[in-house]
Amino acid sequence: MAKKDIFNVPSLGECKIDSPLKMSSETGDLIVNYVNDNETILYNIDGKITEKETLESREKLMKAGPRKQIYFNPKHVHAGIVTCGGLCPGLNNVIRAIVRCLWYSYGVRRITGIKNGYKGFLPEYGYEPIELSPDIVDDIHKLGGTELGSARGGGDKVTEIVDSIERLNLNMLFTIGGDGTLRGARDIAEEIKKRGLNISIIGIPKTIDNDISFLEKSFGFETAVAKASEVVAAAHTEAHSVHNGIGLVKVMGRESGFIASHTAIAVHEANFVLIPEVKFDIHGENGLLEHLKARLKRRQHAVIIVAEGAGQGYLEAKNKETDASGNKKLQDVGIFLKEEISDYFKKEKMEVNIKYIDPSYIVRSAPADATDSFYCSRLGAHAVHAAMAGKTSTLISYLNNHYIYIPIDVAVSKRNYVDPEGNLWRDVLEATQQPFSMTNN
Amino acid sequence: MAKKDIFNVPSLGECKIDSPLKMSSETGDLIVNYVNDNETILYNIDGKITEKETLESREKLMKAGPRKQIYFNPKHVHAGIVTCGGLCPGLNNVIRAIVRCLWYSYGVRRITGIKNGYKGFLPEYGYEPIELSPDIVDDIHKLGGTELGSARGGGDKVTEIVDSIERLNLNMLFTIGGDGTLRGARDIAEEIKKRGLNISIIGIPKTIDNDISFLEKSFGFETAVAKASEVVAAAHTEAHSVHNGIGLVKVMGRESGFIASHTAIAVHEANFVLIPEVKFDIHGENGLLEHLKARLKRRQHAVIIVAEGAGQGYLEAKNKETDASGNKKLQDVGIFLKEEISDYFKKEKMEVNIKYIDPSYIVRSAPADATDSFYCSRLGAHAVHAAMAGKTSTLISYLNNHYIYIPIDVAVSKRNYVDPEGNLWRDVLEATQQPFSMTNN
Amino acid sequence: MAKKDIFNVPSLGECKIDSPLKMSSETGDLIVNYVNDNETILYNIDGKITEKETLESREKLMKAGPRKQIYFNPKHVHAGIVTCGGLCPGLNNVIRAIVRCLWYSYGVRRITGIKNGYKGFLPEYGYEPIELSPDIVDDIHKLGGTELGSARGGGDKVTEIVDSIERLNLNMLFTIGGDGTLRGARDIAEEIKKRGLNISIIGIPKTIDNDISFLEKSFGFETAVAKASEVVAAAHTEAHSVHNGIGLVKVMGRESGFIASHTAIAVHEANFVLIPEVKFDIHGENGLLEHLKARLKRRQHAVIIVAEGAGQGYLEAKNKETDASGNKKLQDVGIFLKEEISDYFKKEKMEVNIKYIDPSYIVRSAPADATDSFYCSRLGAHAVHAAMAGKTSTLISYLNNHYIYIPIDVAVSKRNYVDPEGNLWRDVLEATQQPFSMTNN
Amino acid sequence: MAKKDIFNVPSLGECKIDSPLKMSSETGDLIVNYVNDNETILYNIDGKITEKETLESREKLMKAGPRKQIYFNPKHVHAGIVTCGGLCPGLNNVIRAIVRCLWYSYGVRRITGIKNGYKGFLPEYGYEPIELSPDIVDDIHKLGGTELGSARGGGDKVTEIVDSIERLNLNMLFTIGGDGTLRGARDIAEEIKKRGLNISIIGIPKTIDNDISFLEKSFGFETAVAKASEVVAAAHTEAHSVHNGIGLVKVMGRESGFIASHTAIAVHEANFVLIPEVKFDIHGENGLLEHLKARLKRRQHAVIIVAEGAGQGYLEAKNKETDASGNKKLQDVGIFLKEEISDYFKKEKMEVNIKYIDPSYIVRSAPADATDSFYCSRLGAHAVHAAMAGKTSTLISYLNNHYIYIPIDVAVSKRNYVDPEGNLWRDVLEATQQPFSMTNN
User: Fold this and answer.
1) What pLDDT score does B328 carry?
2) Can you tell me the distance from the alpha carbon of D244 to that of D240, in angstroms, rounded to the nearest whole number?
3) Which residue is closest to D136 within chain B, CA to CA?
4) Residue B400: left (phi > 0), alpha (psi -120 to 50), or beta?
């Protein structure tokens, strides 16, 4: 991607209206400051400098925050909020923060919640939007889930959605969702541009898997790790309380093993972590099962964390094999592994006791913990500042310890992965004492 | 401070021994990699470039991690660990991580825990050191506090401490503590150097107030905010359940209002936050009490968070006034405020109901939550890698999203503060809706 | 008290209306059954039978539950709910249960919440009552405190209260409160009777101290013990992490040491428990301080739980001594003890480290845990069944494993105490290993 | 069962040794009292007296507690502890309480933990018993599971077990387990009697399902309900956050619906509760599915709690049908229901979103909460008092608000069920608003 892609946060136009926030533009007056579009941080902060590289040649990321001049007159603003995709801790916190910042900081009085994801824009579903205000959202951060309801899909019906946005007379829309949702938001913004409308589309990235690029940490991730850690502790208790007990926990992570990796380091009680980014063999002398057997011989119990996207090669192979009988269950790597382990030890004539736990819904639906609650508040407020300043097709992100604005287009251009050679995975290996590699060749 | 101060991590000498970790130095072989001393990140990541500034002219921070060549032969290592100062969530996690990394990754078998802070080195106290091993520390991360015991002071008796280190025959010492402890560690390292000894002194920064510079976030901080948030929620419940209820919570923060600020944003229920960095008046038309009265008139309840170091100007004045009677209680800003508020509303003939909570011990002694547990594990492991590679007088830190090594001397050269004009305080003001300034002129 | 006092639950008159609950009066039809006034349990269940005693001679307690015939026509019911006195976990759960049972089970549609205790009835305060419905109370059980607000006092203004009840046109009132509140409820019921009105007054006993007689366990008590246990664990961590650390925790219990006793047994980490029912000396060779010193010599740390009503003899004496200087702080047994301990060890030239925690507000304001949530639901429903059946001046209680109805007059006739010779205190002594007696003669 | 069965707690013989506990036998001396075998409570406390019934004719239950005279000389005691069957919160608390009471109160110094249930007695497994002391068990109550390990089965090998008990030279054995375990304990006690040995066998009833008769509440039950409540709250969040969301939670309860019933009342968010004791139809106009559809039409989300033993009639039928293909998964009522619901709404062409959660391992492995921790401490201590006084084949129980001793034989003679016509189920129906009956005829 070109450097300017990062820098050039799309905008609806010039900001000519004085912000009602009454902050300061001066340093030293002890009044909190506005942020201006020229304030940036470096994207690449590597201390290693390639030949001819200069500071100017490194991409910059625009700092988020309230602008002194804004694009929209708060009195004329009608804001919409929509939550899409699977649940994630903190959704309600973000909704609440957006509503409160619009209402209290800018004085916006028309805020509408779109029900059940993008489908809430589509007339065929008949979902009625709801009015939002600080009173209505006052306590929702104490609950998990989303008060607006969520749903997958619908984001491809861009024309209908923009029609609906026009009918509702929205001039800003906050979309909270993952990769697909954000692509939808970008497409909506493009359609809006095509129609010559002045509507700001702002994305707040939601991915419990933490796999969105250009985002240091997704909201809800810390809560997810905390909940997953509780479950791994339970699995450890089960495994530890019987002879040759095996606790097997499946955690979220379709393409990225961040939850699995963080949980393993946080909870200290896992012996094997399997993630999509690191290939492993199940059978063979350097495969998982042999190492598991050795661990049981040594300690009489073991705990395995498997990310849902790990070992998909096995599942695809297996799926083909069983195409005729159509056993859909085997697409679940947790159940697959449970059966492989069980079969193996039966053959080995070694009595083991497997306890398999799939805590996904418990993890997803948890209310945000304090760390995430703090984070969501600030993401929500920064989203409002972006919209009020006329940014559009823009994502609120957090990178290199700063809140930033980044074009959605850039953010969805690639995913975030655990580097199998990097320091996170290294610390997982140290925490678990599992072999550096569990492949046979 | 000069740039080289940051870069030049002190070292005992050349690393000539192959690390037993069997990692890789190549990229692309899918084996986790060693880190070498040339790997750095930029300290200043501001995108704004001053004239003539180049990438080369910006200070670099050395990346933490295991080195391919190490200084100490693991078989000859005798490591010591000491925890100093007040309690902080995660102390046991750090101890555990150090012991496990030494034992499992490097094969070190002699690890000694020094009891009760630096005093454990001083013969006059007669505290016996204890032997540590993975079995002994296996479950300590589930408990708050420190299994080694802690104490304040003693760090100025450098000669005696180094004598004691020599007697114990330690060749590496991990000191976990705050500003004062780290200064002590630096002085110990200097004395060691003077004596021509090859002993590595590594500091792991502990400050529940998050006020150590060159450190993005101190361990235990997230847990502290989470616990403080629970207490502010309790104060809100108390305030909300009576007419004109006022919940007043004192949180830690002698010189920095980080816990107060994070808690206010995380918990959403505070109306006034008072921190050391931001001056405020209690009386007068723009003082706290007038704003508090207005809030009560409007909503019939209010919640105040005060950092322990806030408003010290008042306490000093008050202290002078009452020197004769020697009322020590007034040095506590929480109790002082409670009485000021109470007196004021008595004069105003407005019945209020104040509930004052000081949760400090509950916050300090909490076991680390998952976020901090993860963080402590990694800090501890990085400390071991530093010591094994012969770094000394070195702090393990986390900055710009990377674990780094930094000379202790640099880290203790200044403190970390909430910027009254910066974005954290701005988001506090938005969350609380308190006035930008509560001073009368 | 005479047997009939227990049995004779006051009633407004004959029940002539068919309950809308459509339950069954037959056993064996697999439909849940109504309860009738003849269903009772024994109050005294001692197996030891005194001479001439017969089953008939033992007092009976009327079982709570829905009656087949009820007194009020649900369509004409206007119910009021009031919460009085200090906070207690579960208040909102009881409010919610009453509203839901009235609304869903009986079809009552007029339910009014009185604000801020009995004061909400008194015109001089000007508190507006609020309308209640299942929607309004749907999530309140997730919050601590009381959504109606609470206040102490006002219950003696019986005439004004009944005037107000008449003005509001209530025909049933649910009062949730402690001893004083219940006496108020009884007096209100008497005044109502005097005026010849048909208004049911039902009490739900609230006492976080668990000191109401004829009540096996008060709601919120389990949550209070759980929260107090967390705090004692924190005090233990503090004490255990320093040399000669002393953790001192004050828990609620003005006249009864139930929270202190249950917490000590639940948490296993207290070494001394001081309660109002058991006399103790502070000084002298068999006093607390000597035993504390011995404990520290043995184990280097100690934890003390003190109920707020313990040692009041000392405070009274002390108060007299210091009358001139008027040091009000000493009425707090926690602070008093802290100072006594501190002074003693200074004299003994033994360095100790005291951490005093007073968690009262944190305990009181906690949301009900699952055990209490279950209990509150059932208390609330039983209260509604009582009112609908025309009971009045009646308390909902739980005794000998059954929900019962009992005249308020009987219930407030004496308090509930920890028996210093009984099995609860015995198990405290076993758990703490403290001396059977800490008095000098 | 005959009255004497309840009363006649089996005993090894006369107690001739003075207890070392130094308690009192007098009332009024303010010293805690011993309990003697004549202290009883009534078993049947119904206030309704049948003709000719007298107080004497009602069965009595012997009060638990320390006896003034004991059977065993503490110096000669070698005690064994064994935990059997599935995990349950509080196992470690009971182990800890037994060890501490033996050690500190009676001065017993030989305590042995049998590993992995009754199998630990059987030589073929080769499990080594472990030595226990207060130091070893000091912190185990903070962990779930059992430090001794547990296993099912082995209890029928009575001869081998008693051989092993003799070899170990135990003179008292504490067996913590469910129905089957207790039958085993009774058989072991009989074999011991046959051999003329003086070994006390004491049972502590463990049943997370709460289905042991003559026991008001089993230990771990409150914790189980609390954990299950969290999961039902998660299911509710999931259901509530999508259109036509259905949360389906399977809880433990093979033959009794206590956990399901208590959870439904505690958590307030279930709409349907299915338990083994109450027959229901899935299909048909009064079946579950029709009511579920109606609920969704009305509120767009629903939560179902199903006890694992509910609807077994369906599973048996289904199992027969599918015998050929041998689909074992269908024996799980949760998965069965999930599929039935899914199929039904497909046919109805109504899009629903089912989230099925099976939290069994998370519930079982939780550490005991404060309520259970308190209860386990006291059960453990009472078990020790029973053994020291030479009781045998005796269960420690809690009934009518008292700790009691009861012959194991009596306790295992029948199970405990939710009465479909009783007040617990009635309150479930009120909480859920589900129909009184969901059968078609």
Assistant:
1) 39
2) 8
3) B136
4) left
Cβ distance C357 to B355 less than 8 Å, yes or no, reads no
Residues D139-150 pLDDT 10s: 999 999 999 999
- DSSP run (H or E) holding B83: strand B78-83
C328 near B CB under 8 A: no
Sheet with A394-399, side-by-side order of all strands = A40-42, A60-63, A402-407, A394-399, A200-205, A172-177, A78-83, A110-113, A130-131
Q: Is this complex scored with an ipTM above 0.85?
A: yes
Q: What percent of chain B has pLDDT over 70?
A: 95
Angle between helices A258-267 and B370-388 in degrees, nearest 10: 80
3-state DSSP helix/strand/coil % of chain D, to nearest 5: 40, 20, 45
Type of residue found at A65: G
Tokens of D235: 């299911």
Angle at D103 between CA D98 and CA D104, to 5 degrees: 105
A373 with B229: Cβ contact below 8 A: yes
What confidence tens digit (pLDDT) does each residue in D118-166 have? 999 999 999 999 999 999 999 999 999 999 999 998 989 999 999 999 9
Q: Which residue of D has its CA nearest to A356?
A: D361
Structural contact between residues C333 and C312, judged by C-beta atoms closer than 8 angstroms: yes
Give the predicted TM-score (pTM) of the model. Answer: 0.95
Q: Helix A258-267 vs helix A221-240: angle between axes, to the nearest 10 degrees?
A: 60
Out of D22, D35, D420, the one facing C30 most closely (by C-beta) is D420
Q: Does D168 touch chain B (CB under 8 A)?
A: no
A25-28 long-range contacts (CB < 8 A, ≥24 apart) are A25/A68, A27/B421, A28/B421
Task: Kindly report the backbone phi and psi dihedral angles of residue B11, in degrees, each rounded to the nearest multiple of 5, phi listed first.
Answer: -140, 150
Say whether residue C145 is in contact with chain B using an 8 A CB cutoff: yes
Which two three-digit tokens encode residue D108?
């017993």
| 123-142 of A, contacting C, C-beta below 8 A | 139, 142
Neighbours of chain A (3+ CB pairs under 8 A): B, C, D
Asked whether the beta carbons of residue C45 and residue D41 sit closer than 8 angstroms, the reply is: yes
CB B255 within 8 A of CB B309: yes
- Closest by CA to D243, choosing from A154, A142, A176, is A154
Contact A366 D242 (CB under 8 A): no
Half-sphere exposure of C259 (CA within 13 A, CB side): 38
Q: Smallest Cβ distance to D427: which of C46, C278, C378? A: C378
Cβ proximity of A397 and A404 under 8 Å: yes
